[in-house]
Write a sequence for this structure.
């Protein structure tokens, strides 16, 4: 058993251990595999699941490069090269939707992560019973679909009898045509997004914090550390893996906008597209009537490829700075 | 160790087979046959059945997808009754597959794209048969119609068959209903009476202006003109000068008396509608938030004085009254009845994957000729879901668990029982309109959008941004149009026009309209 | 020192109370609207305090209670089965890739992560589920497609990578095999993480309607959310396609109105308030290596 451990330990380092030079590459690899086989078996059900439900259907990615005809099928349809991608790049709007998608997602990531992290740290400071109540409350919006949030937002924002305009009027201010005025929308969208997801993210970070070994805090308290010091010196460093993972996951979806948020909350108002339109809403508008499978597949493929490039870059940077916390 | 590995693999395989077995059971438990099973069975039986005529039809199961605005609690009961009739008449059973209307397009596009085996689907306004033909989803039915549904073929006017033909072959059976347009105003009676509106003096769109001014001045809570911009208002679709070219984006026209059928794109007269809207918006005749609100919210409150409508059909007054808070309305037509051909609004098509197309055709023939079967689908079982009152009139029973209220989804509405408020001769009147309407000379033109998919997608996106603003006049036309036109050009306007022109010229040649 | 401490706690509590209020306020609006008489909604718009109180919306929805109860049954079934199975698989996969000493750690992580970015899309999945696995009208069609999300695996990995390798090494010295280590040591150590992920997975199943829309035609197997979302979708479709409804004479007044839409949300979300505390019980501090060894 002792031997087993040391070998597994070597497995993590790619360099060939001395004294095994005689074996061929395949033989060595088989040897490594044998040492890792128990862990491999543990992951096997998940790997098989992904193979069947994710990798096999990926054959369908080729639809993006074909003129998909239902009678000819995925393999029989004609190749058309990059034709299906063209509509995304031919107009000036391409710049607008790309810019909006990236900027909004960046804002959501920054605002969402810092708010959730702060709330999670604060939540750890108060009594468990009370914090459970807050968790539940903050999590509530997660249950509402965007369509319904859209109705609620409308009750607040609509021109003639929305709550906000009524309040403005009661203070003697002029009502605002929220759905025809693009300028305030970046703020509105960021707030609504925060409102909807902050509970979810807080929960994840909170679960991470309570998993931290309390001995660390005990030791820090004995050394006379302040709460703030503990947060920055213990909590955040120990939370780094989960924070970095959450960040990298978000970066992977940088080019994928939240359709429901950007479609239902601004009420799909054409006046606001300048500041609300993202790739996903544009595609919906462009393809709604045509219903073209190939063109929507092309969009998804484009978003995925950019996401992959971004994630590889982000992970590469993390790996340089802090190899232990990189994803791979 | 190898043993262990094999053990796990075996376990996984076992799990997979158990899963698939469950799935199979699910299907069987549900309705006797899984779709796959029927398909192969049907393929083998189809040929002999055709040869030996209708006497010895082998039993088959047909699957029929259609949209419903709300799914019905007693669907199973109605299906059972339907099958009693269908079994007796054509020895088939039909599996009714209603899909909620909001999901219909997504679900059917997936089902069709996946090549799932089924027989009949509803096509129409939101799932256009011509698009489905280009994607290879549905099959032509000329021969089937001649062989298995001669009565139906004869019953439907030629213009509808033309409207459902793509490249000379028929791809759908119309659910016959009104097929004419007559546009004009629907005006709340209380205001027309109060301000002594002289309806005879209103001949064109602009003539209503003085009346709108009166409403604006005296009725502060009322929206004078109920336009919310979801569809274009263009009388040029047919007036004394123009016909619209149907099946495109509603911005191509031909002149009424032009023997050369020259295409006109965005003629001044059409743009004048936007100018008028800009003016009316500034005057306050159009609601200030019209471009971002839903018309229905104001209609139900009875807040809309005048509404522009393109199908002022018989009985529309009763229909609108029910929708607008019970206020009585009068109609003021601005045009005669006309028809842009048949725009394939509501039909049944046969899937390319249908195992038994001929039996599907028999069923469709039956639905359109057997009044009992049709009304069973529309209204449910007599005595359980509705009761007959006098003559052909029926009344839904309270708390009925089956009332789809979408007669036009199943078949020709001319076979339907009458509901309260419908005039007794409503179907004769409707048929008369269908046969007497002036027909658009280029109504049968069918555009193949495939060569310009990219351009159409981008044009749709541009119009999506500006449409409601322009139609409601919220965006000032003169200020907006140059920028908008620039964007349209950038989106591929010219290439699109060139392709349309090319295909339209070909169409004119083929039809002998132009030498 | 002690007083300052109390003060900051008070401040934190105040902050959270304020935040909770902001979050709950729109929620209260939803509940209030669901209890308002439709006529007063038409006249006054949404209001926090109903002018005319009415239970009509709930009466409308509970009109066919058999359907609603069956839908609850389906949803509860897929939520329990899906959450248990999903959580186990997520933990197994995540644990393996969280082990820094596992030779295939990086490649497996990438293998899993890649499926978050790329997917074959709707059509191939539909073909797989219906034509190869034959899962149409089976509850497995609701459970399997969303069983194992790469996002959850990655989050779980984040939690598990905090477990010190020494614990595992020492267990090995004691002669434990990997399976035993995972089930006896790792899982108990990860209780808060498991509870969080369990919660997230259950919510995914509770809210699932899209696969049901595609794969379930049998009215007896429709989950709650599909029943409700379907109605919402149809209203949304019909009100935004007014030219369609106008031409075909669909009478929108026969539809559930705004109060019913909100009642739908209440019925769908309400039971979650029971599930939430169930998982919260496992959010316990101080479960450490020491306590485990004891």
């Amino acid at each position: 058993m002792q031997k087993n451990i040391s070998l597994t330990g070597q497995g993590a380092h790619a360099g060939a251990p001395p004294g095994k030079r005689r074996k061929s590459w395949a033989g060595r690899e088989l040897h490594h595999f044998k040492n890792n086989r128990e862990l491999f078996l543990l992951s096997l059900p998940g790997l098989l699941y992904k193979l069947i439900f994710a990798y096999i259907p990926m054959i369908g990615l080729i639809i993006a490069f074909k003129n998909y005809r239902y009678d000819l099928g995925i393999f029989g349809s004609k190749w058309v090269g990059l034709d299906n991608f063209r509509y995304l790049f031919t107009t000036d709007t391409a710049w607008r939707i790309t810019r909006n998608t990236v900027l909004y997602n960046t804002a959501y990531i920054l605002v969402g992560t810092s708010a959730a992290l702060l709330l999670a740290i604060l939540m750890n400071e108060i009594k468990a019973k009370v914090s459970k109540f807050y968790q539940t409350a903050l999590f509530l919006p997660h249950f509402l679909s965007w369509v319904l949030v859209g109705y609620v937002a409308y009750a607040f924002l609509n021109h003639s009898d929305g709550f906000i305009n009524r309040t403005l009027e009661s203070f003697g201010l002029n009502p605002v045509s929220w759905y025809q005025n693009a300028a305030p929308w970046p703020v509105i969208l960021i707030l609504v997004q925060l409102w909807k997801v902050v509970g979810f993210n807080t929960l994840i970070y909170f679960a991470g914090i309570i998993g931290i070994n309390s001995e660390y805090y005990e030791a820090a308290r004995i050394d006379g550390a302040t709460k703030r010091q503990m947060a920055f010196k213990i909590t955040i460093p120990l939370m780094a893996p989960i924070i970095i993972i959450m960040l990298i996951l978000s970066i992977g979806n940088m080019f994928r906008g939240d359709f429901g948020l950007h479609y239902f909350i601004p009420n799909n108002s054409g006046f606001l597209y300048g500041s609300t339109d993202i790739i996903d809403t544009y595609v919906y508008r462009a393809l709604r009537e045509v219903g073209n499978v190939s063109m929507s597949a092309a969009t998804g493929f484009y978003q995925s490829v950019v996401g992959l490039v971004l994630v590889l870059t982000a992970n590469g940077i993390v790996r340089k700075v802090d190899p232990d916390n990189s994803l791979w | 160790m190898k043993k262990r590995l094999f053990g796990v693999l075996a376990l996984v395989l076992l799990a997979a087979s158990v899963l698939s077995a469950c799935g199979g059971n699910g299907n069987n438990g549900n309705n006797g046959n899984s779709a796959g099973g029927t398909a192969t069975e049907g393929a083998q039986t189809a040929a002999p059945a055709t040869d030996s005529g209708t006497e010895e039809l082998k039993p088959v199961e047909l699957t029929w997808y259609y949209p419903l605005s709300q799914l019905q609690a007693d669907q199973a009961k109605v299906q059972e009754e339907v099958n009693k009739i269908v079994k007796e008449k054509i020895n088939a059973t039909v599996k009714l597959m209603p899909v909620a209307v909001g999901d219909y397009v997504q679900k059917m596009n997936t089902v069709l794209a996946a090549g799932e085996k089924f027989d009949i689907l509803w096509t129409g306004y939101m799932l256009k048969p011509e698009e489905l033909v280009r994607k290879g989803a549905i099959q032509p039915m000329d021969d089937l119609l001649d062989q298995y549904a001669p009565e139906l073929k004869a019953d439907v006017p030629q213009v509808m068959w033309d409207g459902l033909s793509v490249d000379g072959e028929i791809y759908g059976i119309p659910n016959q209903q009104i097929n004419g347009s007559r546009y004009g105003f629907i005006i709340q009676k209380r205001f027309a009476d109060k301000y002594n509106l002289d309806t005879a003096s209103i001949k064109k769109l602009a003539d209503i202006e003085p009346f709108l001014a009166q409403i604006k001045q005296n009725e502060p809570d009322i929206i004078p003109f109920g336009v919310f911009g979801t569809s274009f208002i263009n009388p040029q679709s047919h007036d004394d000068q123009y016909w619209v070219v149907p099946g495109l984006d509603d911005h191509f026209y031909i002149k009424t008396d032009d023997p050369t059928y020259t295409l006109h794109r965005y003629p001044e007269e059409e743009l004048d509608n936007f100018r008028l809207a800009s003016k009316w918006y500034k005057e306050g005749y159009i609601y200030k938030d019209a471009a971002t609100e839903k018309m229905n919210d104001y209609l139900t409150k009875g807040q809309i004085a005048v509404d522009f409508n393109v199908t002022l059909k018989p009985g529309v007054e009763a229909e609108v009254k029910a929708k607008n808070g019970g206020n009585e309305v009068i109609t003021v037509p601005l045009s005669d009845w006309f028809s842009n051909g048949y725009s394939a609004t509501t039909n049944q098509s046969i899937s390319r994957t249908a195992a038994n197309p001929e039996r599907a055709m028999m069923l469709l023939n039956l639905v359109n000729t057997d009044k009992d079967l049709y009304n069973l689908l529309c209204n449910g079982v007599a005595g359980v879901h509705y009761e007959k009152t006098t003559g052909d009139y029926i009344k839904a029973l309270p708390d009925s668990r089956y009332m789809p209220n979408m007669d036009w989804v199943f078949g020709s509405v001319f076979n339907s029982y009458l509901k309260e408020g419908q005039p007794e001769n409503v179907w004769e009147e409707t048929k008369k309109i269908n046969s007497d309407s002036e027909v658009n000379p280029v109504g049968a033109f069918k555009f193949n959008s495939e060569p310009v998919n990219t351009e159409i997608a981008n044009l749709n996106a541009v119009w999506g941004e500006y449409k409601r603003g322009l139609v409601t006049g919220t965006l000032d036309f003169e200020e907006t149009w140059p920028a908008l036109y620039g964007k349209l050009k950038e989106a591929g306007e010219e290439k699109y026009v060139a392709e349309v022109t090319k295909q339209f010229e070909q169409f004119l040649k083929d039809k002998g309209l132009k030498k | 020192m002690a007083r300052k401490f109390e003060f900051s706690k008070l401040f934190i509590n105040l902050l959270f109370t304020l935040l909770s209020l902001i979050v709950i306020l729109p929620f209260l609006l939803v509940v209030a609207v669901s209890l308002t008489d439709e006529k007063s909604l038409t006249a006054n718009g949404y209001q926090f305090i109903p002018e005319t109180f009415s239970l009509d919306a709930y009466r409308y929805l509970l009109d066919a209670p058999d359907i609603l109860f069956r839908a609850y049954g389906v949803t509860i079934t897929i939520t329990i089965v899906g959450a248990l199975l999903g959580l186990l698989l997520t933990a197994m996969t995540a644990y393996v890739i969280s082990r820094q000493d596992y030779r295939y750690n990086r490649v497996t992580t990438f293998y899993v992560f890649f499926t978050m970015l790329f997917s074959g899309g709707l059509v191939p999945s539909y073909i797989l589920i219906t034509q190869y696995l034959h899962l149409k009208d089976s509850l497995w069609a609701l459970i399997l497609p969303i069983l194992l999300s790469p996002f959850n695996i990655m989050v779980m990995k984040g939690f598990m990578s905090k477990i010190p390798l020494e614990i595992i090494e020492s267990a090995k010295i004691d002669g434990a095999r990997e399976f035993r280590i995972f089930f006896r040591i790792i899982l108990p150590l990860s209780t808060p993480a498991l509870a969080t992920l369990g919660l997230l997975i259950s919510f995914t199943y509770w809210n699932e309607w899209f696969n049901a829309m595609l794969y379930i035609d049998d009215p007896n197997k429709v989950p709650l959310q599909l029943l409700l979302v379907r109605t919402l979708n149809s209203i949304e479709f019909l009100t935004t396609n007014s030219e369609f409804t106008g031409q075909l004479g669909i009478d929108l007044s026969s539809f559930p109105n705004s109060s019913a839409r909100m009642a739908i949300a209440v019925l769908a979300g309400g039971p979650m308030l029971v599930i939430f505390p169930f998982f919260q019980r496992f959010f316990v501090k101080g479960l450490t290596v020491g306590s485990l060894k004891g």
